[in-house]
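Slide 14.
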Amino acid sequence: MTRLVEGWADDVPHGAPTDFHRAVAARPDEAVLFSWMEFPAKAARDDGMARMAADPRKAAMAADMPFDVRLIYGGVVPIHDR
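Slide 15: predicted structure.
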């Protein structure tokens, strides 16, 4: 992984048909966090994700989370990077 960014929602408005709040079924008392990881190549991403999924520490970490985690994930191909 070349970069990991995590952010607390600052300007995440509620939308008409879709928005981050609805995407994760956030309750009114919940905040939305947004994260992404950058990898140098798709092969590196696939390997890294497989290693993370297989890591036995993942279950222990998930059990100790102080908040509920609802994820939406996928890969993208950059079309603009400045």
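Speaker note: The chain is about 30% helix and 15% strand.
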